[in-house]
Amino acid sequence: MRIISLIPSATEIICALGEEKNLVGRSHECDYPKSIQNLPMCTKLKFDVSGSSLDIEKNVNSFLIDSSSIYHIKEDLIKKIRPDIIFTQSQCNVCAVSLEEVQAIFKGHKGIKPEIITLKPQTIEDIWKDINMVAESLGISKKGLRLNRTLKKNIDLLESTKENKKQKPTIACVEWIEPLMFAGNWVPEMVEIAGGNDIFGFAGVHSSWNTFENLLRSDPDKIIIMPCGYSIEKTKKEMIALKNTLNWTNLKAYKNNNIFIVDGNQYFNRPGPRILDSIKILKEIISNEKHLFGYKNKAWEKLHY
Asked: 297, exposed or middle or buried, with CB in 10 Å at 0-12, 13-18, 19+?
């Protein structure tokens, strides 16, 4: 079986199921585990993403006006690889190559007819369904069930240790800095499991654009910054957009030194097996480090002003 994965979460699921040996291609964003980085990249972005979050947002909007995608698919390479299965997504046309783009490659092509499987997670329950779907498509259903049982058991243990407070700490999870966006989908559920109250996101609902004024008005106890596709170092460079915002220093989280940067790219934006790691990161932050799992200063840092 020859597999191409065009979305990092699918790549990570495939590897967690023990099927890395069958991967023959990946997207430019698939970089975990490190052992898959020698695989040919079947996609690339159409523009440079080294600029600010505002620059990137403008580029995305500009490309989507003139085209249905911000990605270039290497059609010749994919046809040369001759995959049996291609994994993609239909959750967001900005996050990764879409189902329609992949289908278009093989339209009218008689020689290669791979099975195209699309993931569309919006909640934690959807992640379990995706793991099962990937496993079933690879003919290893039992492995999918076992992986889910292990993940759920560990998450249940994490949830069982949260404090039974009537007033949970209020949390704002920032998925994009400029313009401001708060994380939705599976992130509010993870915050709940870790013992917090996400005051902006809604489980199963796409991430939403918002304003700095609403952030100031809601004044959460903790702000966790997790830009989509951003490492900790890249996020640090973006913080000037928030630091220059009117009344930033009036925020409770600012005054109490409760603003955190996490690795959104490697964890929170990838709805796969490392959802467990993401919840542990949140647990460390929300519990004021009463629970530590070794992620501090590796997957998250406290923002220093």
From this structure: exposed
Helices 141-160 + 275-286 axis angle, to 10: 0
- pLDDT tens-digit readout, 8-32: 999 999 999 999 999 999 999 999 9
The pTM (predicted TM-score) of the whole model is 0.91
pLDDT tens sequence across 149-172: 999 999 999 998 877 777 899 999
